[in-house]
Amino acid sequence: MNVFTHVTVKTLKKNRMRTAVTVIGIVLATAMLTAVTTFISSLQSFMVRSAIAEAGNWYGAAFQIPKDKREELAGDPEVTAFTSFQEIGYARLEAEGDSSKPYLFVAGVEDTFYDLLPIHLVRGRLPEDSTELVIPRHMLVQRRLTADIGDTITLELGERVSDSRKLSFANPVSLITEDGETEEELVYGEMRTYTIVGVIERPDLEDYNAAGYFCMTAADPDPADDSTFTCYYRLRKSSDIYSFQETRTAGYEGTYNTNLLRYLGASNNRPMMRMIYGLAAILILLIMPGGVSRVYNSFAISVSARPRQFGLLASTGATPKQIRRMVITEALIVGGIGIPLGILSGIGGIGVTLHFLENSFAYMYAGNVPMYLSVSVPAVVIAGATALLTVLLSAFLPAGRAARVSPMEAIRQSRDIRVPRQVQKKGRLFFRLFGLEGMIAGKHFSRNRRQYRATIFSLFISIVLFISASSFSAYLKNSIGGMGEAVGYDVSVYFEGADVKPEEEERFVESIRRVEGVERMISVKGANGELAVLPEQMTEKYRTYAEEDAARWDQEFWQEDGTAGLGTFVAVLEDADFAAYLEELGLSGQISVDPAEGGVLVLNQIRVYDPGEERYRFLDVLDPETIGSELKMVVTDYKSMARNQEEAPEEDLETENYQQEVSFTVAAFVEKGPMNLFARQGDLFGLIMSQSVFEARIPQGERYLNGHNVYVQASDHQGVRERIENLSLEAQGSTYLFVYDETESMITEQNMMFTVEVFTYGFIVLISLIAVANVFNTISTGFLLRRREFAILTSVGMAPKGMNRMLSCECILYGCKALLYGLPVSVFVTWRIYKVVQDSIETGFFIPAASIVIAVFSVFAVVFATMIYARNKMKKENVIDNIRQESL
Fold first, then answer.
1. Percent of residues, the chain, with pLDDT higher than 90
2. Residues near 670 by Cβ (< 8 Å), separated by ≥ 6?
3. Would you tell me how many other CB atoms lie within 10 Å of the CB of residue 685?
4. Nearest to residue 568, comparing CAs of 689, 486, 738, 691?
5. Rounded to whole angstroms, how far apart are CA atoms 802 and 438?
6. Rounded CA gap, 780 and 759, in Å?
């Protein structure tokens, strides 16, 4: 350690408070950078583990691999993990159900199969030999099978052949002809008898359009020489999988574990990772100005506090390079302390955060994979290097200023404080408002502009960063929440099935109503129609949008009769549910429920995506003048059309024969449906009416109803969902119930919003801490540098009350000047954030008023608290010693 380093260390020790505050600023900035990079590495690890849990820990797969080729792949030196299943064969399913999945596929798996591919048991156990079979649960549900554990089944297995080519498990069923047959042949080979020992969830390797349901048995101990296999493997380097597939498995069909490769950074298409890394870059760019400002002010104040020291060193022969090196050494010393502490703090902080939020990331992927801390060396190195760069950039300008100091000016200390002629005229307004103390405060800003500007800049940066971060958070939550609000039901039930009879539907509706735990239920039938609307009956905004949209697709919007046909959904409620709905809206008694006179309610506002503006917009369709008038609508009997088309596929059916024109009176516009049904369907323009009105206006109305849904409110939504699903399994006939737990989905979305809020507010808190430390250090050091000035004022008779009044006046000037610059810039940044959001979804411009109020209050609170701290510290010092003191 040379003499300059020794002097630097002694200076840091002498000014412990300033050194500690500088180190704290570096710790906070480094902690934020580390938190960002560590969160990105943890998120990437989470996505990798989720992809493995969903699809398996393999990179590539090849189908229909012969026995000898399989052994060659298994022994390849590039392959680090390998497994396969024997393609034993297909059996035709005669049970009713989905004709696009007519087979049962039997795969003989190896013991290592479960290491690379996820298999989730519902009940029972996995097969132990080639006489045991495990079947998927969705096959039992979709094909109405009653097979269970312990049952014995005999299957006639064979190969799927199309155009003399054997089809693999990856090939969907060939085109289904009009008579229900497929353009492929099942060539039977052998009979096998199995005992069912387990039921599994649908494995990810069974694609939704796969030809057969994936069933597992153990691989044959000694498979025949003509056996084929599907092989899965992992390589030493994930990026080599593409060249490996092209060379080692050329001529065979194959696939890739796309999501896993993407998250490992090996995919040719990486939009997700580009987005994540781009987000990290934006956050780092937001953090660095605050960090640079914070650390720069510390070094600038440190340099300005020691001009006499630098002058004396320069007068004794120190070169500008050596003086510059002193400041850089000071930066490296405080950085060497602050950066490691910041890295540890950032890792610890993000670790604690992820510990409490581990289950809040379930909305990203299905599965039970927790989110936890994952520290990677590159992430820590990037954070540390960025923090070091921030420190060095912050010290560069002060170091240059120290190197350029003139020895004589530095020793006289005449460089930093200059008294221009204008100073003599300033302070008169403050004298009238605040007296002598106010005038002295005003003159101080004029004669010590460098320190004054540094303080104002610190406050300015603090205000802009805090309000900008708050605006970003507010607009982010507003844009996410604006895409769809919460519905008012917990469980929804959809009827599926061919030619479901109305009486059968009603029987199931009553069965659902009696399910234990159902607190309220509404039954909604649907019909599709087309309204004939005149130009004057539309709003101008919607008319303009619709005309431009039609022109974009080379279609005519206006028909020959001068009207436009608007596709419309008609929601038909039971009379009691409709009356309760009117009660909720406060329209009970204002709208007639008489079938002959009753009108319809119109969901008039829709959300549309405008390709011209490349954003979402909210538009009112009908003009308010249409309330009370009649609208004509055409409804179509699609069920009869489809039935007749099946019976006579060669005939050209006339659509008009299945249509009926009706008219309805528009009773009122409404913003939401019963139980807020259509909140998730922002682009839905619909009519809501009672069943009595529908039947009175449309003869044989049941023909035109082509949908039936039930919506349930229940505290025990999971239990109610399971009980309703059991109704479907017990059902007889052609009805199948699809049950959806809306509350569970809403909880998932709430977790997403909570996660966003935690990280945005955490970011705001850390930015605020950096800002507070910055302001505290700047102002407190500025006050302490003026202790000689304060001692002289005290010695000539200024009372403590007058000193406090002078400092309070300075604090007010600091705060007002910073707000004068900071608030307009913050509003501008907020406007830019709004424009970015506005480019994606139509939203109104708003300023986070609460954040501005907090910023205004915080500025004055921090400034006054710092002044009080510095004032109390100076009270303990001797006035004579301070007058003799020339610098810190």
1. 11
2. 585, 601, 602, 603, 604, 688
3. 21
4. 689
5. 9
6. 31
Radius of gyration of the chain (CA): 38
Span 190-227, pLDDT tens digits: 899 999 999 998 888 888 778 889 999 999 888 888 88
Rounded CA-CA distance 530/638 in Å is 13
Strand pairing category for 600-603 and 615-620? unpaired
Dihedral of alpha carbons 676, 678, 682, 686, sign? negative
- Alpha-carbon span 737 to 729, nearest angstrom: 9
Burial 565-577 (b: 16+ CB within 10 A, else e): ebebbbbbbbeeb
Residues contacting residue 204 through CB under 8 Å, at least 6 positions apart: 54, 55, 56, 117, 118
| Cα–Cα distance, 386 to 304 (Å, whole number) | 26
DSSP state of 203: P
In one-letter notation, the amino acid at residue 518 is V
C-alpha pair distances (Å), 295 with each of 334, 463, 844: 10, 17, 38
Going by C-beta distance under 8 Å and a sequence separation of 6 or more, which residues neighbour residue 471?
826, 829, 830, 833, 834, 847, 848, 851
Which residues on adjacent β-strands are paired with residue 801?
A: none
Q: Burial level of 715, CB count in 10 A (0-12/13-18/19+)? A: exposed
User: CA angle at residue 7 from 4 to 11, to 5 degrees?
Assistant: 140
Cβ 170 vs Cβ 253: under 8 Å:
yes
Provide the total of helices (H) and of strands (E) in the chain, helices listed first: 26, 22
Contacts of 540 (CB under 8 A, 6+ apart): none
Neighbour count for residue 628 (Cβ, 10 Å): 10
Residue 214 has phi, psi (to 5 degrees) of -80, 115
Residue 430 corresponds to which tokens in the numbers above? 């403050």
Q: How far is CA 719 from CA 15, 494, 723, in A?
A: 66, 18, 6
Q: Of the candidates 881, 788, 781, which has an alpha carbon nearest to the alpha carbon of residue 303?
A: 781
- Which one-letter amino acid corresponds to residue 887? S
CB 247, CB 60: distance < 8 Å: no
Cα(191)–Cα(196) distance, rounded to whole angstroms?
A: 16
Q: What are phi and psi for residue 740, nearest 5 degrees?
A: -130, 130
Q: For residue 312, which phi and psi values (nearest 5 degrees)?
A: -65, -40
Residues 71 and 409: beta-carbon distance below 8 Å = no
Poorest-pLDDT segment among 8-22, 188-202, 574-588, 817-831: 8-22
Closest CA to 769 of 35, 55, 269, 194: 35
Q: Bridge-partner residues for 166, per DSSP?
A: 161
Burial-class residue 707 by CB neighbours within 10 Å (0-12, 13-18, 19+).
middle
Phi/psi for 88 (5° steps) reads -70, -45
In this prediction, residue 134 carries a pLDDT of: 94
Q: What is the pLDDT of residues 6-38, one digit of tens each?
A: 877 887 787 777 788 778 878 877 887 888 788
Please state, in angstroms and rounded to a whole number, the distance separating the CA atoms of residues 734 and 519.
28
Tokens of 197: 């020992």
Q: Tokens 């002078």 identify what position?
A: 806
